[in-house]
Amino acid sequence: MKNTPTDILRLEGVSKAFPLKKDFFGRVKKLLKAVNNVSLSIKRGETLGVIGESGCGKSTLGKIILDLEKPDRGTVYYKGKDISKLKGKDYREYRVNVQAVFQNPQSSLNPRMRIWEIVTEGLRINFKLSKKELKERALSLLGEVGLPPSYAENYPHQLSGGQKQRVAIARALALTPELIVADEPTSALDVSVQAQIVNLLMDIQEKKGISYFFISHSLPVVEAVSDRVLVMYKGYVVEEGKTEEVFKETVHPYTELLIESVPELFPKKEKRPFKALDSENGDVKEGCPFYPRCPKRRRECLFYDMKPLNLSETHRVSCILYL
Ligand SMILES: Nc1ncnc2c1ncn2[C@@H]1O[C@H](COP(=O)(O)OP(=O)(O)OP(=O)(O)O)[C@@H](O)[C@H]1O
Ligand SMILES: [Mg+2]
């Protein structure tokens, strides 16, 4: 992948595993591979959507982008620079420019702080501003996310779920970021409020040219907001492309099942086809991790190294059927 100047963030061959089992002496016996050899780039002003079932590694990938988790392998580049080597002012610039909005505003907002303090906390920490300046900035930020100025003196518990998420968005915007990692930003909200928050995020993008790394369970939301989409399965990106490519010219059997959302995603217990199946959790030890559930599987899939194949300049797939 070329590092064009418009790439705000780029990941190259990033993997992350968590210890799953330890023996009596505390030595790690088994690792859970949460993110496997993922490469991606996020360009200025674009939304990169991420879909995939619970546990496929979406949030871990988001945390790696935010430097809240360190990858075991691979490199994260912010504007072409390896973030693990950034120091002082340069590291701060990256942290200021890459912000997060998480799923649950209930737990992400400090209940003891007033709304204006929450919204301007990052400004207070990173810049020398007076209380008056911070309050003024808070009022303008509340306006940007569609909240009345009178809310500035309130506490989070006095707000509805949607309003709290607006506060979380205002807090992220306070530092005028270039990229926001939005991890299920609407999943905890009532359906009627979800669309309002999605629209707000889209309006903000239009006005400010911010990029989003947008994680969501909702395929219609991801289809509506994303320029490009990643489909993850067990830590691998199995398909990647422009939104139309992934949703309309789907190639990976997993993406097909995900989009159809058919019950085959939870197939009846079947006899394990080959020895390579891990007896404990239905994982394959080698080859394509989707093998046990894939309606199009072949024996060769167990020997496939999951190296992505380019179908076009933008559309990539990790599936042996396209070799
Ligand atoms: N800190 C951790 N320690 C151990 N295991 C972890 C940790 N964080 C994540 N995992 C595991 O890594 C895998 C990927 O988790 P992750 O939260 O990234 O998935 P996800 O795609 O965001 O799922 P969801 O859709 O439910 O939010 C899961 O199996 C999870 O249990
Ligand atoms: Mg998650």
State the order of secondary-structure elements, H for helix, E for strand: EEEHEEHEHHHHEHEHEEHHEE
- Quaternary organization: single chain
Q: How many independent structural domains?
A: 2
Ranges where pLDDT stays below 50 over 5 or more residues in a row are 262-280
The SS-based structural class is alpha/beta
Ligands present: adenosine-5'-triphosphate, magnesium ion
CATH topology group of the largest domain: Rossmann fold
Strand order of the largest sheet: 6-7-8-3-9-10-12-11
CATH superfamily of the largest domain, please? P-loop containing nucleotide triphosphate hydrolases
CATH architecture of the largest domain: 3-Layer(aba) Sandwich
Individual helix count: 10
| Terminus-to-terminus distance | 19 Å
Number of strands: 12
How can the largest sheet be summarized?
8 strands, mixed
Overall outline: globular
Helix percentage: 25-40%
Portion of residues in beta strands equals 15-25%
Arithmetic mean of pLDDT = 90
Cα gyration radius (Å): 21 Å
